[in-house]
Amino acid sequence: MANTSDIRKGLCIKYNHDIYKIIEFLHVKPGKGPAFVRTKLKSVTSGKVIDNTFSAGHKIDDVRVETRSYQYLYPEGETYHFMDTQDYNQITLQESTLDNPGLLKEGETVSILFNTEDQMPLSVEMPAHVILEVTHTEPGVKGNTATNATKPATVETGARVNVPLFINEGDKIKLETEKGTYMERIKE
């Protein structure tokens, strides 16, 4: 058993007969009244995100998890195939367990959280950023760079992201996986 002071991003807890992963949290100490923790929880079974507020000192039932390295192989409809980098066993996971599946490139190494009690996969943690090639984007208009203007672009995985106007087809860009946003262009 843990309490609200142990809450951190990525912690898996049992709540309302389901297992949730904490994706955001904020400790709040108002001027009047008791402190509390505002959280955003994502169900590892359905992918549904809920907001919840825990009062300070509230007991939470945390789930012991084990992290293993897996390599992403390929998608097949709503399921995604991964291979253990240690013993080469393959597993399939539903799209709901992935935070941003559109940025997942074949061959990418990810961390998969497993429940230590029943060895069920809970969620997939992608690397902090990925480098992808732009496959389609409209050319930027010269002289339109005074503002932080962006344009839509399609990357090699099929995901659509907003990029600055100077990005062209064939450029490699670094994307933040948590929000799916552009970070920088990669020079070769």
TrEMBL record:
The name on file for this protein is: Elongation factor P
Instruction: Enumerate the UniProt keywords alphabetically.
Output: Cytoplasm, Elongation factor, Protein biosynthesis
BP GO terms, sorted:
peptide biosynthetic process
Annotated Gene Ontology cellular component terms? cytosol
Answer whether the UniProt record assigns the keyword Cell membrane to this protein: no
User: What task does this protein carry out?
Assistant: Involved in peptide bond synthesis. Stimulates efficient translation and peptide-bond synthesis on native or reconstituted 70S ribosomes in vitro. Probably functions indirectly by altering the affinity of the ribosome for aminoacyl-tRNA, thus increasing their reactivity as acceptors for peptidyl transferase.
Annotated Translation elongation factor P/YeiP central domain residues: 67-122
Q: Which PROSITE patterns match?
A: EFP
Matching InterPro entries: Elong-fact-P_C, NA-bd_OB-fold, Rib_uL2_dom2, Transl_elong_fac_P/YeiP, Transl_elong_KOW-like, Transl_elong_P/YeiP_cen, Transl_elong_P/YeiP_CS, Transl_elongation_fac_P
Which stretches make up the Elongation factor P C-terminal domain?
Answer: 130-185
Tell me if Protein biosynthesis is a UniProt keyword of this record.
Answer: yes
HAMAP family (UniProt xref): EF_P
- For this UniProt entry, what is the primary localization, expressed as one broad class? cytoplasm
List the subcellular locations: Cytoplasm
Q: Taxonomically, which superkingdom? A: Bacteria
- Which GO MF term does the entry hold, naming one? translation elongation factor activity
Would you identify the family this protein belongs to, as annotated? Belongs to the elongation factor P family.
Which Pfam family name is an example for this entry?
EFP_N
Pathway linked to the protein: Protein biosynthesis; polypeptide chain elongation
